[in-house]
Amino acid sequence: MNEKSSHAPSPPTGIVRLRNISVGALFAAVLVLPKLLHIRRDERSWTIFRIALGIAGASLVILPLSLWNSWLAALTGLVMFMLAILVPASQPELNLDEKARELGALVVVNGGHYQPGNAPVSAVRLFTGSENIWALDSHLQPLVVIPVSQISLLRAEKIGPYWVLLVRWLDHAAEFSYRGIFAEHFARVAESTIRGVMRPALPVLPRSRAANA
Question: What is the pTM of this model?
Answer without folding.
Answer: 0.54
